[in-house]
Please model this.
Amino acid sequence: MISAAFSPAAVTAAAKETAGPGVTFDQVSVAYRGAVVLKPLTMAVAGGEILAMIGPSGSGKTTALRAVAGFVRPASGRIFIGGTDATNLPPYERGLAMVVQNYALFPHMRVSENVAFGLKARGADRDLIARRIEESLRIVGMSQYSKRFPRELSGGQQQRVAIARALAVRPRVLLLDEPLSALDAQIRRSMVEEVARLHADLPDLTILYVTHDQSEALTLADRIAILKDGELSAIGRTGELYRRPPNRFAAEFLGRANLLPVVVSGEDHHPAGARRLLCVRPQNLTLTGDAERSNSLKAILREIHWQGELTHVVAAIGEQILRVVATRLPNPPQRGDRLSLFFAPADANLIVEDAGV
Ligand code: ADP
Model:
């Protein structure tokens, strides 16, 4: 289910009346040979926003992106791009560009020719092409490589060129499908920062970013949509979704979470007697209480692992495992010790097992 601010009917109405500069999915479903892989999806991506679509492999992320690109035809629903109903437009009339995992640069063309390709195909004049090559390569920090061939570049550099090529046609919407997953971890981290910088340079560009890597999404996205089995499981502003995931799937997909089964005794948003999960992130459990962190749980220490900057503690209340990540532990406890684990009310929230609050 979906966070509180989300209302399919309101999004649909807004899309039809004012369809803004971004992208709107209005009840979009996709089927391959009769098998539904994207159930009716309604969500709006604001102009200039980075929305990350995350979810496990096979959850329908790429399919949703390909529907926006025009590479698959929805079985039902409508797609608005930049305020226009694009459902029946061919891909090249949608004002967007797409970058996929495997760069797909033309191997026999130099970097500058690769970047120029889309503009040449559209019959742009030489001055414009030269200007756009220069601008696009500058944005991705590849100006000095314009004469190289793709084989003379590293994977990360090739992917920068692929992004420059996408930007050269000045798309309104940039679709990124696992753009960094072919790169190794260290390069991936620096590329994430580059995509963030790129967006700072081009604040009007709407970006749909598909990834299975929640840390890329947390770093980059203004909002995150989580897909599960072809359905929207949760959507929300990045920090808010991380701090207040609406359900177990969202909580666990966005990072480590302690989820304690509880029964509501009386509260505003949940009925008394309801079974819920109390969600506290490992870094929000501490071994020392204070005025703010006054809620406490009694547990037994099972394991403790010191990892340089962080110490990981595994504790248990009966069969229930609790994880704590601490930055400073002046007097590390030992296996078998009784612990009090503290948390602040603001760092804990009640969530549902699965769909539907
Ligand atoms: P994700 O991007 O989240 O990994 P996809 O959108 O690629 O997921 O796939 C969603 C589901 O649709 C998967 O079960 C996949 O096998 C299926 N699928 C994707 N493309 C095709 C296709 N061209 N023909 C048939 N089934 C497909």
Remarks:
- Residues 1-8, 10-19 have pLDDT under 50 and may be disordered.
- The first strand starts at residue 23 and ends at 32.
- The chain has two domains: 8-95+171-250, 256-351.
